[in-house]
Amino acid sequence: MRTTRLYTLLALLLMAGGATMQAQNKDDPWPHYIEEYPLWIDSVTVQPNGFVMDAIGNVEISTPEGLAWLISAANGLNGCEPDNFDGRTVRLTCDIDLDAGAHRRFSPIGSREHPFMGTFDGGGHTIDGLYVAYNSPDPEYDPAFDIGMFGCLKHGTVKDFVVNSGLFVTGHHLNGGEFFDGCLVGISDSLSVVDGCIVKIRAGSAGGDDQFGSIVGLNRNSVVRNCAYCYGDNDYLVSRNGGGIVYHNLSEGGYADAEVVNCFFYGSVKGSYSAQSFGGIVCFNVVRAAKPW
Predict the structure, then answer these.
(1) pLDDT tens digit string along 191-237?
(2) How far apart are CA 263 and CA 214, in angstroms?
(3) For 100, how many CA atoms within 13 A lie in the half-sphere containing its CB?
(4) How far apart are alpha carbons 255 and 252 in whole angstroms?
(5) Closest among 31, 21, 68, 71 to 203, alpha carbons compared
(6) For residues 52 and 39, what is the distance between their CA atoms, to the nearest angstrom?
(7) Which residues have a Cβ under 8 Å from the Cβ of 208 and sit 6 or more positions away?
(8) How many angstroms separate the CA atoms of 218 and 200, rounded?
(9) Kindly report the CA angle at 164 between 74 and 208, in degrees rounded to 5?
């Protein structure tokens, strides 16, 4: 039987002071104002010049609008047919500033219904102004999707870029349901790889039944490696459940190992009064028989 293997970069954690767990600071309220930002998918409704697809379907992205268009292309929005990019590469060709000119919220690229199955290669570039927020006081509000820059990967790859500025906050799963949130990827599934990525933005969950990791929410039969979360001396907030790198690291059905390799978390994990389970690198590290979501 395969086993789940969890590796941590202990030397770096010790240098950074490790991950600590504290009571939430009530004098530091979580900023909900970004919920009022317009959505990129409502601002970019036709394919822009910064999204160039070649004859075999590989894509080069060179503008904020081009990156925003990937949301519509993958999810089948704004008149697009859903494209999973299986076997193809989407490549950043320069640094991207999503915040240039106006604040806009980023929606997940891919979902369980339409997973991203290609390679997203950041080419060592930076992405600034990534604002992701899904939180509502309305008890009837419960979007049935997983939240992140990418909602769901399936044997896909996300690699080699830095999210340099922005804000990530969720608290939207108010009606229950098993959904997963991560700054980069909500669900990384079926031999997917998240490699060489750094998140440097304030992040956390602000309420509801969140299951949240700063890099990946659910890492199922997949690999997260050479990744880091580091946002100065500020805190990573967990309202209910969370992990400093991955929330749920899951090897399921003897299919493949789930691995977190050479990853680094710098900061403090702060749980609110309702916090149930949280960890500095991984919250849950599990091996189990196959089970549908």
Answers:
(1) 999 999 999 988 877 655 567 889 999 999 999 999 999 987 656 66
(2) 11
(3) 9
(4) 6
(5) 31
(6) 22
(7) 135, 170, 171, 172, 173, 174, 239, 240
(8) 20
(9) 65
pLDDT tens digits along 101-115: 788 999 999 999 999
Strand partners, 130: 166
85 is written with which tokens? Answer: 């990019």
**For the chain, what percent of residues have pLDDT higher than 70?**
74
**Cα–Cα distances in angstroms (integers) from residue 90 to residues 42, 61, 96, 280, in the given order:** 22, 7, 14, 31
Q: How far is CA 283 from the centre of its chain?
A: 16
Domain ranges of the chain: 5-39+103-288
DSSP assignments along 204-270, one per residue: EE-SSS-EEESSEEEEES-EEES-EEEEEEEEEEESSEEESSEEEEEEETTS---EEES-EEEEEEE
What is the average pLDDT across 123-148?
74
